[in-house]
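User: Hey, quick favor. My workstation is busy. Could you predict this chain's structure for me?
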Amino acid sequence: MTAATAAPTHRGQRRAVGPLTGLRSLLRLHLRLARRGILIWTLAVLVLVPASIYAMEDVYPDQAALDARATLLDNPSAVMMTGPFFAADHYTFWAMVANELLLYLLVPAAIMSILLTARLTRGEEESGRLELLRSLPTGRLAPSVSALLVVALANLALGAAVASGMLIGGGGTADSLALGLATALTGLVFGAVTAVTAQLTEHASTASGTALGILALSFMVRGIGDVIERDGSWLSWFSPLAWAQQMRAFVDLRWWPLLVSLAAAVLLVIAGRLSHRRDLGSGLRPAAAGRAAASAALLAPGGLTRRLVGGTHLAWGIGLFLFALAFGSLASSLTDFAENLPDLAGMAPIRLDDLTGSFSAFALMMLAIGPVALAVSGMLRIRTEETAGRLAGVLVAGTSRARLAGQWFLVVLLGTAAMQVLLGLGVGIGVWSATEDTAWIGEMTLAALTYLPAVALYAAIALALYGLGSRLAPLAWLLVVYTALVTFLGQMLGLPDWAMDLSPLQHIALVPSEDLEVMPLVVMGVAAAALALLGLALLRRRDLAAG
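Assistant: No problem, here it is.
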């Protein structure tokens, strides 16, 4: 009798581990890790979709106003920033909703899926938690399948929020459900893209950054394709964003483009195959060995910060510069739009007696949300380094907490200042291309610099919260989100003055359309300096990685 047949079998014997063993437990764990983020994304969409629809109804109450809006959207820059121009001959309200709102639902769904997929796959692996889980009876595919199921549930919740918001706003049932399903499937496509990029690299930030780069490329490809032909050209179909838009919801609904999004599920198969070809903790593309000694730039004050946040600032700076060019070039289409929409001031702080100047100034305010968000993101990156345990190694080398955080703050501010200059140049060049007046380039560049005290204030608030406690630092995002809401929808929603004034950007004069007001800038600059010093003082008094 062989040893195999002689071995006793009893109840305590270890069970065979299949590829999906432990999936249920991992699913509960991943849902627990992601539940807050999913809830925030879903509730935000559920509130903003009907709010946007009601606001648009107030601003565009009749066909004349809709025709004026259609005139503006005939501009190639507007098509780049919104989507294909369906129903151009008879522009209805719901055609406007589908044409102009859908893209700004698809992009957040894609971003949510990218960040969530990277966190639950490569992020868990990079932190070492996945290795700990794999030491238990856990199948090789169970962690990845669990993560993708959570991403799918998150997108279903987001899609349900979109559909519900459309129905609350008065949209038709079939078209509303179609937009919700399109949003969910688009998010899943970019989640699958991230599942592939997570196999290529060892770091979650690189995996998500690569996927975000693909999203940006998809945005540009769709925009260029839609400019070639206003209702979408052959080039548009190379972008996953176009697949949802080509359903033509509220115009001529067709369901078959969703099959293209479903076909993208092959990316999940590719990700699964790639995962079998690498070791746990490694990527298919091996990390560079690096230099034997750090470069002079890395050893210089703020060198670590520049290395960690500089790439993000550069990538988003290029993207925002292109957006600024597009906004500025819209100046050539404003006259006809304003003549047919007398209530223009009800949707934005735009003056009919100075259309170009006031519109350009308002475009700068909207674009300033980008540097504000990157300033907060850059400051919170130090929190990521702390929670991952890497910051302790820097401090052990002899750098004090206050010095490191202070240098971090200054490097982030310099990066966002450079971005503001790019935004001013972009808007100025765009307006120059529309008006043939070169003076706009210098004026808009100087106007962009007026936002620097406000950007510094947002970064200082993040630093103060970080100094108070590592877990409190993400609360800085609440002010950023609120600022975006006030900037884009505040006037259309009829928010009271006190609610609008809670956003620091509202205290900045719309230069060059308005005279510069120095006092608000001084107050915000002083407040930023005080909060930064407070954050540094608080950081000295708390333990590393303390909540």
